[in-house]
Amino acid sequence: MSLSELSTCTTILVGKNASYDGSTLIARNEDTGTAADPKKFVVVKPENQPHEYKAKMSQFSITLPDNPLRYTAIPNAVDKQGIWGEAGINSANVAMSATETITTNERILGADPLTKAGVGEEDLLTVTLPYIHSAREGVERVGEILKTHGTYESNGIIFSDANEIWYMETAGGHHWVAQRIPDDAYVVAPNQTGIQEVNFADSTNFMFADDLQTFVEENHLNLGDHFNFREIFGSHSQLDHHYNTPRAWYAQRYFNRAASQDKTPMSDDLPFITHADHKITIEDIKFVLSSHYQDTPYDPFALGATKETAPYRPIGINRTQELSVLQIRPNVPTERAAIQWVALSANPFNTLVPFFTNVNDTPASYRDTTAVVDSKNAYWANRLIAVLAADHFQAMISDVESYQEKTLGYGHQRVHEIDTANAQLSDAALTDALTTANEKTADHIMAQTSELLSEVIGTAGNLVPGTFTRDNY
Protein backbone atom coordinates (compact mmCIF):
# COMPACT_ATOMS: atom_id res chain seq x y z
CA MET A 1 0.00 0.00 0.00
CA SER A 2 1.36 3.42 -0.91
CA LEU A 3 1.51 6.29 1.55
CA SER A 4 -1.13 8.23 -0.38
CA GLU A 5 -3.65 5.40 -0.03
CA LEU A 6 -3.52 5.34 3.74
CA SER A 7 -5.70 8.32 4.54
CA THR A 8 -8.31 10.27 2.58
CA CYS A 9 -10.37 12.13 5.16
CA THR A 10 -12.99 14.86 5.66
CA THR A 11 -12.58 17.61 8.27
CA ILE A 12 -15.04 20.00 9.96
CA LEU A 13 -13.91 22.88 12.19
CA VAL A 14 -16.32 24.99 14.25
CA GLY A 15 -15.30 28.19 16.02
CA LYS A 16 -16.47 28.79 19.57
CA ASN A 17 -19.06 31.41 18.63
CA ALA A 18 -20.42 29.19 15.87
CA SER A 19 -20.97 26.16 18.12
CA TYR A 20 -24.05 25.38 20.19
CA ASP A 21 -22.41 25.86 23.61
CA GLY A 22 -19.33 27.99 23.03
CA SER A 23 -16.98 25.02 22.62
CA THR A 24 -14.28 24.84 20.02
CA LEU A 25 -15.04 21.75 17.91
CA ILE A 26 -12.67 20.00 15.50
CA ALA A 27 -13.66 16.76 13.79
CA ARG A 28 -12.25 14.49 11.13
CA ASN A 29 -13.19 11.21 9.50
CA GLU A 30 -10.14 8.97 9.23
CA ASP A 31 -10.66 7.24 5.89
CA THR A 32 -8.08 4.69 4.78
CA GLY A 33 -7.34 2.66 1.66
CA THR A 34 -9.13 -0.49 2.81
CA ALA A 35 -12.52 -1.14 4.40
CA ALA A 36 -11.12 -2.83 7.52
CA ASP A 37 -8.13 -1.19 9.20
CA PRO A 38 -8.89 -1.57 12.92
CA LYS A 39 -8.35 1.28 15.38
CA LYS A 40 -8.13 1.56 19.15
CA PHE A 41 -8.70 4.43 21.59
CA VAL A 42 -5.89 4.83 24.14
CA VAL A 43 -4.28 7.08 26.72
CA VAL A 44 -0.51 7.55 26.34
CA LYS A 45 1.13 8.34 29.67
CA PRO A 46 4.40 10.30 29.81
CA GLU A 47 6.41 7.22 30.80
CA ASN A 48 5.19 5.41 27.68
CA GLN A 49 6.04 8.17 25.21
CA PRO A 50 9.14 7.35 23.12
CA HIS A 51 12.20 9.60 23.36
CA GLU A 52 13.86 8.42 20.16
CA TYR A 53 11.17 8.17 17.50
CA LYS A 54 11.57 6.37 14.17
CA ALA A 55 8.84 5.98 11.54
CA LYS A 56 8.02 2.65 9.93
CA MET A 57 6.63 3.87 6.59
CA SER A 58 9.34 6.46 5.82
CA GLN A 59 12.91 7.38 6.73
CA PHE A 60 11.82 9.98 9.30
CA SER A 61 13.36 9.93 12.77
CA ILE A 62 13.59 12.52 15.54
CA THR A 63 14.76 12.95 19.13
CA LEU A 64 11.76 14.10 21.14
CA PRO A 65 11.79 16.61 24.03
CA ASP A 66 11.78 15.62 27.68
CA ASN A 67 8.69 15.92 29.92
CA PRO A 68 5.87 14.99 27.53
CA LEU A 69 2.25 15.51 28.53
CA ARG A 70 -0.31 12.72 28.86
CA TYR A 71 -2.61 12.52 25.81
CA THR A 72 -5.31 10.45 24.14
CA ALA A 73 -4.94 8.98 20.65
CA ILE A 74 -6.62 6.60 18.20
CA PRO A 75 -3.71 4.61 16.75
CA ASN A 76 -3.80 1.55 14.54
CA ALA A 77 -4.65 -1.65 16.40
CA VAL A 78 -1.86 -3.34 14.42
CA ASP A 79 1.30 -1.22 14.30
CA LYS A 80 3.17 -2.84 11.42
CA GLN A 81 2.73 0.43 9.47
CA GLY A 82 3.46 2.64 12.48
CA ILE A 83 1.41 4.40 15.13
CA TRP A 84 -0.98 6.66 13.14
CA GLY A 85 -2.25 8.34 16.33
CA GLU A 86 -4.71 10.52 14.34
CA ALA A 87 -6.68 12.46 16.98
CA GLY A 88 -6.40 13.29 20.66
CA ILE A 89 -6.38 15.81 23.49
CA ASN A 90 -3.46 16.33 25.87
CA SER A 91 -3.50 17.14 29.59
CA ALA A 92 -3.18 20.86 28.79
CA ASN A 93 -6.53 20.65 26.95
CA VAL A 94 -4.98 21.12 23.53
CA ALA A 95 -6.56 19.03 20.77
CA MET A 96 -4.92 17.86 17.56
CA SER A 97 -6.18 16.00 14.50
CA ALA A 98 -3.67 14.83 11.91
CA THR A 99 -4.02 14.65 9.05
CA GLU A 100 -6.34 15.77 6.26
CA THR A 101 -4.53 14.53 3.16
CA ILE A 102 -4.60 17.33 0.55
CA THR A 103 -3.57 17.85 -3.05
CA THR A 104 -1.03 20.18 -4.61
CA ASN A 105 0.19 20.82 -8.15
CA GLU A 106 3.14 19.81 -10.24
CA ARG A 107 4.94 23.17 -10.25
CA ILE A 108 5.05 23.23 -6.46
CA LEU A 109 6.39 19.68 -6.30
CA GLY A 110 9.05 20.63 -8.82
CA ALA A 111 10.17 23.69 -6.86
CA ASP A 112 10.10 22.02 -3.42
CA PRO A 113 10.05 18.23 -3.80
CA LEU A 114 8.65 15.99 -1.11
CA THR A 115 11.30 14.24 0.99
CA LYS A 116 11.40 10.58 2.00
CA ALA A 117 13.06 11.46 5.31
CA GLY A 118 10.25 13.84 6.21
CA VAL A 119 7.41 13.71 8.72
CA GLY A 120 3.99 12.37 7.74
CA GLU A 121 0.59 11.37 9.03
CA GLU A 122 2.03 8.25 10.64
CA ASP A 123 4.13 10.43 12.94
CA LEU A 124 2.58 13.85 13.44
CA LEU A 125 0.35 13.34 16.47
CA THR A 126 2.99 11.38 18.37
CA VAL A 127 5.79 13.90 17.81
CA THR A 128 3.64 17.00 18.40
CA LEU A 129 0.67 16.67 20.77
CA PRO A 130 2.59 15.74 23.97
CA TYR A 131 4.75 18.88 23.69
CA ILE A 132 2.32 21.78 23.13
CA HIS A 133 0.29 23.97 25.49
CA SER A 134 -1.83 25.89 22.98
CA ALA A 135 -3.13 25.54 19.44
CA ARG A 136 -0.68 28.20 18.27
CA GLU A 137 2.22 26.25 19.80
CA GLY A 138 1.11 23.25 17.77
CA VAL A 139 1.54 25.18 14.53
CA GLU A 140 4.94 26.47 15.68
CA ARG A 141 6.20 22.97 16.56
CA VAL A 142 5.13 21.41 13.26
CA GLY A 143 6.55 24.40 11.40
CA GLU A 144 9.97 23.76 12.97
CA ILE A 145 9.79 20.06 12.14
CA LEU A 146 8.94 20.88 8.51
CA LYS A 147 11.82 23.34 8.32
CA THR A 148 14.30 20.78 9.64
CA HIS A 149 12.99 17.50 8.27
CA GLY A 150 10.42 18.31 5.57
CA THR A 151 7.50 16.04 4.70
CA TYR A 152 6.78 13.25 2.24
CA GLU A 153 3.14 14.25 1.64
CA SER A 154 0.79 17.23 1.58
CA ASN A 155 -1.43 17.49 4.64
CA GLY A 156 -3.87 19.62 6.59
CA ILE A 157 -3.20 19.59 10.35
CA ILE A 158 -5.65 20.87 12.97
CA PHE A 159 -5.08 22.28 16.45
CA SER A 160 -7.53 23.68 18.98
CA ASP A 161 -7.69 24.87 22.55
CA ALA A 162 -10.49 26.53 24.51
CA ASN A 163 -10.16 29.77 22.54
CA GLU A 164 -8.66 29.11 19.12
CA ILE A 165 -8.70 26.71 16.18
CA TRP A 166 -5.77 26.70 13.74
CA TYR A 167 -5.72 24.90 10.38
CA MET A 168 -2.25 24.32 8.91
CA GLU A 169 -1.58 23.20 5.31
CA THR A 170 1.71 21.96 3.94
CA ALA A 171 2.79 22.45 0.34
CA GLY A 172 5.83 20.81 -1.19
CA GLY A 173 8.47 19.34 1.05
CA HIS A 174 9.03 22.26 3.45
CA HIS A 175 6.48 25.05 2.96
CA TRP A 176 3.26 25.74 4.82
CA VAL A 177 0.69 28.26 5.95
CA ALA A 178 -1.74 28.23 8.89
CA GLN A 179 -4.89 30.23 9.46
CA ARG A 180 -6.81 30.85 12.67
CA ILE A 181 -10.44 29.95 12.07
CA PRO A 182 -12.68 32.92 12.97
CA ASP A 183 -14.71 32.31 16.12
CA ASP A 184 -18.02 32.75 14.26
CA ALA A 185 -17.13 30.53 11.30
CA TYR A 186 -16.88 26.89 10.29
CA VAL A 187 -14.68 25.11 7.74
CA VAL A 188 -15.10 21.94 5.70
CA ALA A 189 -11.88 20.45 4.28
CA PRO A 190 -12.21 17.51 1.82
CA ASN A 191 -8.69 16.43 0.73
CA GLN A 192 -8.04 19.71 -1.09
CA THR A 193 -5.85 22.71 -0.38
CA GLY A 194 -8.33 25.07 1.25
CA ILE A 195 -6.76 28.24 2.66
CA GLN A 196 -7.35 31.20 0.37
CA GLU A 197 -6.19 34.82 0.89
CA VAL A 198 -3.13 35.09 3.16
CA ASN A 199 -2.48 38.36 5.02
CA PHE A 200 1.23 38.35 5.82
CA ALA A 201 0.82 41.42 8.05
CA ASP A 202 -1.77 39.76 10.28
CA SER A 203 0.18 37.60 12.74
CA THR A 204 -2.94 37.19 14.89
CA ASN A 205 -4.64 35.11 12.23
CA PHE A 206 -1.89 33.79 9.95
CA MET A 207 1.38 31.91 10.38
CA PHE A 208 3.63 30.67 7.58
CA ALA A 209 7.04 29.35 6.61
CA ASP A 210 9.69 32.08 6.94
CA ASP A 211 10.58 32.02 3.25
CA LEU A 212 7.10 31.42 1.81
CA GLN A 213 6.81 34.72 -0.09
CA THR A 214 10.35 34.57 -1.41
CA PHE A 215 9.90 30.94 -2.47
CA VAL A 216 6.76 31.80 -4.47
CA GLU A 217 8.36 34.85 -6.11
CA GLU A 218 11.65 33.17 -7.06
CA ASN A 219 9.88 30.19 -8.61
CA HIS A 220 7.21 32.24 -10.42
CA LEU A 221 4.42 30.27 -8.75
CA ASN A 222 1.82 33.01 -8.29
CA LEU A 223 -0.18 33.41 -11.50
CA GLY A 224 -2.50 36.05 -10.00
CA ASP A 225 -2.18 39.50 -8.50
CA HIS A 226 -2.78 38.53 -4.85
CA PHE A 227 -1.59 35.74 -2.55
CA ASN A 228 -4.27 33.04 -2.63
CA PHE A 229 -2.72 29.91 -1.11
CA ARG A 230 -5.28 27.58 -2.72
CA GLU A 231 -4.74 29.07 -6.19
CA ILE A 232 -0.95 28.97 -5.92
CA PHE A 233 -0.46 25.61 -4.21
CA GLY A 234 -3.66 23.64 -4.86
CA SER A 235 -5.07 21.54 -7.69
CA HIS A 236 -8.17 21.63 -9.88
CA SER A 237 -8.22 18.15 -11.38
CA GLN A 238 -10.99 15.90 -12.65
CA LEU A 239 -10.39 13.80 -9.53
CA ASP A 240 -11.10 16.88 -7.38
CA HIS A 241 -14.46 17.35 -9.11
CA HIS A 242 -15.62 13.81 -8.33
CA TYR A 243 -13.70 13.02 -5.14
CA ASN A 244 -13.26 16.27 -3.20
CA THR A 245 -15.44 19.26 -4.06
CA PRO A 246 -18.77 17.37 -3.80
CA ARG A 247 -18.14 16.82 -0.10
CA ALA A 248 -17.59 20.52 0.59
CA TRP A 249 -20.63 21.34 -1.54
CA TYR A 250 -22.92 19.02 0.42
CA ALA A 251 -21.66 20.19 3.81
CA GLN A 252 -22.05 23.86 2.93
CA ARG A 253 -25.49 23.11 1.50
CA TYR A 254 -26.43 21.65 4.89
CA PHE A 255 -24.98 24.38 7.09
CA ASN A 256 -26.09 27.41 5.07
CA ARG A 257 -28.57 26.39 2.40
CA ALA A 258 -29.41 29.88 1.13
CA ALA A 259 -25.79 30.79 0.45
CA SER A 260 -25.09 27.60 -1.55
CA GLN A 261 -27.98 27.60 -4.02
CA ASP A 262 -25.84 28.63 -7.01
CA LYS A 263 -23.13 26.01 -6.32
CA THR A 264 -22.79 22.49 -7.71
CA PRO A 265 -20.81 19.40 -6.65
CA MET A 266 -18.09 20.39 -9.15
CA SER A 267 -17.78 24.05 -8.15
CA ASP A 268 -14.14 25.15 -7.91
CA ASP A 269 -14.92 28.37 -6.02
CA LEU A 270 -16.41 27.06 -2.77
CA PRO A 271 -15.21 29.30 0.07
CA PHE A 272 -12.85 28.04 2.77
CA ILE A 273 -14.17 30.20 5.63
CA THR A 274 -17.96 29.92 5.84
CA HIS A 275 -20.76 30.89 8.20
CA ALA A 276 -23.69 28.67 9.15
CA ASP A 277 -27.30 29.80 9.38
CA HIS A 278 -27.59 28.18 12.84
CA LYS A 279 -25.41 27.20 15.78
CA ILE A 280 -23.61 23.93 14.98
CA THR A 281 -24.13 20.91 17.24
CA ILE A 282 -22.40 17.58 17.77
CA GLU A 283 -25.33 16.00 15.88
CA ASP A 284 -24.81 18.34 12.91
CA ILE A 285 -21.18 17.30 12.67
CA LYS A 286 -22.09 13.62 12.91
CA PHE A 287 -24.79 13.96 10.24
CA VAL A 288 -22.52 15.70 7.76
CA LEU A 289 -19.57 13.35 8.33
CA SER A 290 -21.94 10.39 7.89
CA SER A 291 -23.67 11.76 4.81
CA HIS A 292 -23.97 10.17 1.39
CA TYR A 293 -25.75 12.99 -0.45
CA GLN A 294 -29.15 11.97 0.87
CA ASP A 295 -32.04 14.10 -0.43
CA THR A 296 -30.10 14.79 -3.63
CA PRO A 297 -30.01 12.82 -6.92
CA TYR A 298 -26.52 11.52 -6.04
CA ASP A 299 -27.26 9.20 -3.09
CA PRO A 300 -25.61 5.77 -3.70
CA PHE A 301 -28.06 4.15 -1.21
CA ALA A 302 -31.16 5.43 -3.01
CA LEU A 303 -33.43 2.86 -4.63
CA GLY A 304 -32.21 2.24 -8.18
CA ALA A 305 -28.91 4.08 -7.68
CA THR A 306 -26.11 3.26 -10.15
CA LYS A 307 -22.59 4.50 -10.79
CA GLU A 308 -24.10 6.89 -13.31
CA THR A 309 -26.56 8.41 -10.83
CA ALA A 310 -24.04 8.48 -7.97
CA PRO A 311 -20.75 9.62 -9.53
CA TYR A 312 -19.38 11.38 -6.44
CA ARG A 313 -17.40 10.06 -3.49
CA PRO A 314 -19.65 10.18 -0.37
CA ILE A 315 -18.52 11.72 2.91
CA GLY A 316 -19.74 8.74 4.91
CA ILE A 317 -17.80 5.99 3.17
CA ASN A 318 -17.16 2.33 4.00
CA ARG A 319 -13.43 3.06 4.36
CA THR A 320 -13.90 5.30 7.42
CA GLN A 321 -12.10 3.76 10.40
CA GLU A 322 -12.90 6.34 13.08
CA LEU A 323 -14.34 9.77 13.67
CA SER A 324 -13.18 11.94 16.55
CA VAL A 325 -15.00 15.13 17.50
CA LEU A 326 -12.62 16.97 19.83
CA GLN A 327 -14.53 19.34 22.12
CA ILE A 328 -12.96 21.86 24.51
CA ARG A 329 -15.84 23.28 26.56
CA PRO A 330 -16.17 26.72 28.19
CA ASN A 331 -17.71 27.51 31.56
CA VAL A 332 -16.63 24.27 33.25
CA PRO A 333 -13.44 23.57 35.23
CA THR A 334 -10.51 22.88 32.94
CA GLU A 335 -10.09 19.39 34.39
CA ARG A 336 -13.48 18.44 32.94
CA ALA A 337 -13.48 20.66 29.86
CA ALA A 338 -12.12 18.22 27.27
CA ILE A 339 -14.24 15.50 25.66
CA GLN A 340 -13.30 13.23 22.77
CA TRP A 341 -16.43 11.97 21.02
CA VAL A 342 -15.50 8.72 19.26
CA ALA A 343 -17.25 6.77 16.50
CA LEU A 344 -15.66 3.66 15.02
CA SER A 345 -16.06 2.17 11.54
CA ALA A 346 -18.41 3.53 8.84
CA ASN A 347 -20.32 6.60 10.00
CA PRO A 348 -23.71 6.03 8.33
CA PHE A 349 -24.20 3.09 10.72
CA ASN A 350 -22.37 3.97 13.97
CA THR A 351 -22.74 6.40 16.86
CA LEU A 352 -20.65 9.00 18.66
CA VAL A 353 -19.65 8.29 22.27
CA PRO A 354 -18.36 11.01 24.66
CA PHE A 355 -15.19 10.19 26.59
CA PHE A 356 -13.66 12.62 29.07
CA THR A 357 -9.93 12.84 28.35
CA ASN A 358 -8.60 13.64 31.84
CA VAL A 359 -8.29 9.90 32.53
CA ASN A 360 -5.76 7.20 33.37
CA ASP A 361 -7.03 4.69 30.83
CA THR A 362 -9.73 4.07 28.24
CA PRO A 363 -12.49 1.40 28.32
CA ALA A 364 -11.32 -2.06 27.29
CA SER A 365 -13.96 -2.39 24.56
CA TYR A 366 -12.45 0.65 22.82
CA ARG A 367 -8.82 0.07 23.86
CA ASP A 368 -8.18 -3.61 23.20
CA THR A 369 -9.07 -3.84 19.53
CA THR A 370 -7.84 -7.10 18.01
CA ALA A 371 -6.32 -7.74 14.60
CA VAL A 372 -9.07 -10.26 13.82
CA VAL A 373 -12.83 -9.91 14.12
CA ASP A 374 -14.16 -9.91 17.68
CA SER A 375 -17.64 -8.52 18.29
CA LYS A 376 -16.68 -7.62 21.89
CA ASN A 377 -14.49 -4.84 20.42
CA ALA A 378 -16.33 -1.62 19.63
CA TYR A 379 -14.48 -1.35 16.32
CA TRP A 380 -15.38 -4.81 15.07
CA ALA A 381 -18.99 -4.73 16.30
CA ASN A 382 -19.53 -1.54 14.33
CA ARG A 383 -17.66 -2.88 11.31
CA LEU A 384 -19.93 -5.95 11.20
CA ILE A 385 -23.01 -3.74 11.38
CA ALA A 386 -21.71 -1.53 8.57
CA VAL A 387 -20.93 -4.43 6.23
CA LEU A 388 -24.35 -6.01 6.68
CA ALA A 389 -26.41 -2.82 6.73
CA ALA A 390 -24.81 -1.36 3.61
CA ASP A 391 -25.98 -4.34 1.55
CA HIS A 392 -29.55 -4.04 2.85
CA PHE A 393 -29.74 -0.31 3.47
CA GLN A 394 -33.46 0.24 2.99
CA ALA A 395 -34.38 -2.72 5.21
CA MET A 396 -32.08 -1.75 8.07
CA ILE A 397 -31.75 2.03 8.15
CA SER A 398 -34.77 2.46 10.44
CA ASP A 399 -33.18 0.28 13.14
CA VAL A 400 -29.83 2.04 12.67
CA GLU A 401 -31.33 5.51 12.98
CA SER A 402 -33.24 4.50 16.12
CA TYR A 403 -29.99 3.24 17.64
CA GLN A 404 -28.18 6.45 16.72
CA GLU A 405 -30.88 8.66 18.24
CA LYS A 406 -30.97 6.69 21.50
CA THR A 407 -27.22 6.46 21.92
CA LEU A 408 -26.50 10.10 21.06
CA GLY A 409 -29.17 11.13 23.52
CA TYR A 410 -27.55 8.89 26.11
CA GLY A 411 -24.18 10.50 25.33
CA HIS A 412 -25.44 13.98 26.13
CA GLN A 413 -27.15 12.64 29.25
CA ARG A 414 -23.87 11.10 30.40
CA VAL A 415 -21.94 14.35 29.96
CA HIS A 416 -24.47 16.12 32.19
CA GLU A 417 -24.49 13.29 34.75
CA ILE A 418 -20.70 13.10 34.94
CA ASP A 419 -20.33 16.85 35.27
CA THR A 420 -22.88 16.93 38.09
CA ALA A 421 -21.58 13.88 39.94
CA ASN A 422 -17.98 15.11 39.93
CA ALA A 423 -18.49 18.83 40.48
CA GLN A 424 -16.66 18.77 43.84
CA LEU A 425 -13.70 16.59 42.76
CA SER A 426 -10.29 17.65 41.47
CA ASP A 427 -6.78 16.35 40.84
CA ALA A 428 -6.22 12.58 41.08
CA ALA A 429 -9.65 11.89 42.57
CA LEU A 430 -11.34 13.51 39.57
CA THR A 431 -9.12 11.68 37.09
CA ASP A 432 -9.99 8.35 38.71
CA ALA A 433 -13.70 9.20 38.74
CA LEU A 434 -13.72 10.22 35.07
CA THR A 435 -11.90 7.00 34.14
CA THR A 436 -14.60 4.97 35.89
CA ALA A 437 -17.38 7.09 34.38
CA ASN A 438 -16.06 6.46 30.86
CA GLU A 439 -16.22 2.72 31.56
CA LYS A 440 -19.92 2.98 32.41
CA THR A 441 -20.59 4.99 29.26
CA ALA A 442 -18.78 2.43 27.09
CA ASP A 443 -20.55 -0.53 28.70
CA HIS A 444 -23.97 0.94 27.96
CA ILE A 445 -23.07 1.81 24.36
CA MET A 446 -21.60 -1.65 23.76
CA ALA A 447 -24.81 -3.27 25.05
CA GLN A 448 -26.86 -1.13 22.66
CA THR A 449 -24.46 -1.89 19.80
CA SER A 450 -24.70 -5.63 20.46
CA GLU A 451 -28.49 -5.40 20.30
CA LEU A 452 -28.29 -3.60 16.95
CA LEU A 453 -25.81 -6.18 15.63
CA SER A 454 -28.25 -8.96 16.56
CA GLU A 455 -31.09 -7.16 14.76
CA VAL A 456 -28.96 -6.54 11.68
CA ILE A 457 -27.81 -10.16 11.51
CA GLY A 458 -31.40 -11.35 11.82
CA THR A 459 -32.63 -9.05 9.06
CA ALA A 460 -29.72 -9.83 6.76
CA GLY A 461 -30.15 -13.56 7.29
CA ASN A 462 -33.71 -13.36 6.02
CA LEU A 463 -32.66 -11.46 2.90
CA VAL A 464 -29.77 -13.59 1.60
CA PRO A 465 -30.08 -15.29 -1.80
CA GLY A 466 -31.31 -18.84 -1.44
CA THR A 467 -33.75 -18.11 1.38
CA PHE A 468 -36.55 -20.67 1.08
CA THR A 469 -39.69 -21.17 3.15
CA ARG A 470 -42.92 -23.10 2.76
CA ASP A 471 -44.39 -19.88 1.30
CA ASN A 472 -42.20 -20.43 -1.76
CA TYR A 473 -44.40 -23.23 -3.02
From TrEMBL:
Gene Ontology MF term list: cysteine-type exopeptidase activity; dipeptidase activity
EC number(s) on file: 3.4.-.-
Keyword Hydrolase among record annotations: yes
Classification via InterPro entries: C69_dipept_A-like (IPR047804), Peptidase_C69 (IPR005322)
Biological processes annotated in GO: proteolysis
Keywords: Dipeptidase, Hydrolase, Protease
Pfam families: Peptidase_C69
TM spans (from-to): none
Highest rank taxon of the organism: Bacteria
Reaction(s) catalysed by this chain's protein: an L-aminoacyl-L-amino acid + H2O = 2 an L-alpha-amino acid
Family that this chain belongs to: Belongs to the peptidase C69 family.
NCBIfam families in UniProt: C69_fam_dipept (NF033678)
Protein name listed in UniProt: Dipeptidase
Species of the source: Furfurilactobacillus rossiae DSM 15814
Phylogenetic classification of the source organism: Bacteria, Bacillati, Bacillota, Bacilli, Lactobacillales
